[in-house]
């Protein structure tokens, strides 16, 4: 059984500022780390690997060469190999163009039974690339899985928590799954596994290594454009007094909360 | 020539419409003016009438596709059905709630349509026919305005409770628009059960009843527990109450405890020291009850009552039933 976990490298802190002159994000001095939610996806893959003899876990990421650090970290957790998709032509991609390259790479890796994603990246917070990849690969998806187990030779059973509903889903593999962070606690790399990780294969694929339509890559292949970046103003609120006896005031509050669909 | 269409995709939650749908209809109407037709897309079973929960909010049209498999359909099946409607009607823009369902279906549809999608938006406007979507990034520290200038439809998911739903006059035209249901047999929803409250900590509760020094008696805490249950939320406390045996540091809201931003927080007997306020002032709806009319908590509250916490709580509980 082959599992591919798609990961992203993100700035180590969300305390980014805006350059007052250029109005661009000032990311100077921000080191990259693996997106924390992606570690839950790796942990799930490793748990499945621990439970069966035949499970191979590969990691896949797209980004500049220093994203190899996150692949190494995942291999130090216990993944078997890493793939880095790195090319100038991929830069500036939005979710659609990112999903396209990742889907093409997954086709080249081939035969993945389970493709895992973290619930979303902590920097851009979209959570879109998993479903986009699932669509491009014509595979069913289970997003925001709260639990997942192998329930047959070629079948997984997952629970998915909607805001107020719990669903149970059964998927025949292959399938794409994104996982909630509550699913597990990611393991730390042990010194031995860190040492072993340096002997594990890390494959770098550039533009020419993949079957790609150039019009779908990078900025040119991205339908969305960021036109403005700014720091949010604090919300100013206007106080509506609740008046009269406690009973009258409570009644006013209930009406207000109903209007806001809170009850 | 007919007006371009601005779509709101209605989301189903068990036997009801998820409330973000109505919020988006109200927002879409205010964006549309005379320039767009607001069309709500509803996928439901043949005998369902979820349109009855939508018409009061005044969309120009409710367009319904019916199939008895829709209530338990999976993301790919729903995205496929919406894709058929998009091909037929060519809308200008499509809005989804940024719920788990919306955030799962919208990107699949985006991939089918090869267009742009902006996630989890906090504001929307149109510059002519270009949708300008404002989305937070970096944990809400940065706002981005994003457009999709050369592709249609333009798509966005919008964070729940960003906008307030307001009933509106005007009779919506209700039309049926058949689609072909293409089942994906490899994935089945085998059970769906309501969950009243999945929050295990005050940090992930969507509704919070917060107690401070002015609401610290055993009776008040008991009432607050009942109120939190009715709201589907959790109790949180300001620092003084962490000394009580019933609470721990994990329950604390504020700079040295949890920073929270629930949909609703009702503060009882909390004056609102700065250290407390920074931990909760980004909550969506803030209610404060305090005996001191000059308490700083009222500066950040949407609704305020000056009076006794226990008396107000008792009155509120009595009217909840």
From TrEMBL, chain A:
Superkingdom, according to UniProt? Bacteria
Question: Which Pfam family would be a valid example here?
Answer: ETF
For this protein, the record's Gene3D superfamilies field holds:
HUPs
Mind telling me which CDD domains this protein's record contains?
ETF_beta
Location of the Electron transfer flavoprotein alpha/beta-subunit N-terminal domain: 22-214
Recorded protein name is: Electron transfer flavoprotein small subunit
Name the species this protein comes from. Levilactobacillus angrenensis
TrEMBL record, chain B:
Q: Where is the Electron transfer flavoprotein alpha/beta-subunit N-terminal domain?
A: 6-191
Tell me which SMART domains the record gives: ETF (SM00893)
Q: Which Gene3D superfamilies match?
A: HUPs (3.40.50.620), TPP-binding domain (3.40.50.1220)
Look up the domain of life of the source. Bacteria
Pfam families (alphabetical): ETF, ETF_alpha
Family (UniProt): Belongs to the ETF alpha-subunit/FixB family.
- In its UniProt entry, what is this protein called? Electron transfer flavoprotein subunit alpha/FixB family protein
Species classification: Bacteria, Bacillati, Bacillota, Bacilli, Lactobacillales
């Amino acid at each position: 059984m082959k599992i591919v976990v798609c990961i992203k490298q993100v700035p180590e802190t969300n305390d980014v500022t805006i350059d007052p002159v250029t109005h661009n994000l000032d990311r100077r001095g921000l080191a990259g780390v693996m997106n924390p939610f992606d570690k839950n996806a790796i942990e799930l893959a490793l748990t499945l690997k621990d439970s069966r003899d035949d499970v191979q876990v590969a990691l896949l990421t797209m980004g500049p060469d220093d994203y190899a650090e996150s692949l190494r970290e995942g291999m130090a957790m216990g993944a078997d190999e890493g793939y880095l998709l790195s090319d100038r032509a991929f830069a500036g991609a939005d979710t659609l163009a990112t999903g396209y390259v990742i889907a093409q790479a997954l086709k080249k890796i081939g035969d993945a039974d389970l493709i895992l994603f973290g619930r979303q990246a902590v920097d851009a917070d979209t959570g879109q690339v998993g479903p986009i990849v699932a669509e491009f690969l014509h595979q069913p998806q289970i997003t925001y899985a709260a639990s997942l187990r192998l329930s047959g030779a070629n079948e997984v059973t997952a629970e998915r928590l909607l805001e107020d509903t719990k669903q149970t889903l059964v998927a025949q593999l292959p399938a794409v799954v994104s996982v909630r962070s509550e699913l597990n606690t990611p393991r730390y790399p042990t010194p031995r596994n860190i040492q072993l990780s340096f002997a594990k294969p890390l494959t770098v694929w550039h533009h020419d290594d993949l079957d790609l339509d150039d019009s779908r890559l990078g900025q040119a292949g991205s339908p969305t454009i960021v036109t403005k970046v700014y720091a949010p103003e604090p919300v100013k609120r206007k106080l509506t007094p609740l008046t009269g006896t406690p009973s009258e005031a409570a009644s006013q509050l209930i009406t207000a909360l109903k209007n806001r669909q809170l009850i | 020539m007919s007006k371009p269409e601005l779509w709101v995709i209605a989301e189903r939650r068990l036997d009801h419409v998820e409330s973000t749908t109505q919020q988006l209809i109200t927002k879409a109407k205010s964006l549309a003016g005379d320039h767009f037709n607001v069309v709500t897309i509803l996928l439901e079973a043949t005998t369902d009438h979820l349109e009855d929960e939508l018409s009061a909010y005044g969309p120009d049209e409710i367009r319904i596709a019916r199939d008895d498999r829709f209530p338990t359909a999976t993301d790919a099946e729903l995205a496929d059905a919406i894709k058929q409607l998009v091909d037929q009607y060519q809308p200008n823009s499509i809005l989804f709630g940024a719920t788990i369902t919306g955030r799962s279906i919208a990107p699949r549809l985006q991939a089918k349509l090869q267009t742009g999608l902006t996630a989890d938006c906090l504001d929307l406007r149109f510059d002519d026919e270009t949708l300008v979507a404002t989305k937070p990034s970096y944990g809400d520290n940065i706002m981005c305005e994003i457009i999709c200038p050369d592709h249609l439809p333009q798509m966005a998911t919008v964070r729940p409770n960003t906008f307030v739903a307001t009933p509106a006059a005007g009779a919506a035209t209700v039309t049926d628009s058949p689609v072909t249901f293409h089942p994906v047999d490899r994935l089945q929803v085998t059970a769906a059960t309501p969950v009243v409250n999945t929050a295990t900590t005050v940090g992930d509760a969507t509704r919070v009843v917060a107690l401070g020094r002015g609401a610290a008696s055993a009776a008040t805490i008991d009432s607050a527990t009942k109120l939190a249950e009715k709201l589907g939320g959790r109790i949180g406390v300001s620092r003084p109450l962490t000394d009580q045996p019933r609470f721990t540091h994990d329950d604390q809201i504020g700079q040295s405890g949890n920073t929270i931003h629930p949909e609703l927080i009702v503060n009882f007997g909390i004056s609102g020291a700065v250290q407390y306020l920074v931990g909760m002032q980004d909550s969506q709806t803030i209610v404060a009850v305090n005996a001191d009319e000059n308490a700083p908590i009222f500066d950040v509250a949407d609704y305020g009552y000056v009076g006794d916490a226990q008396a107000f709580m008792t009155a509120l509980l009595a009217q909840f039933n």
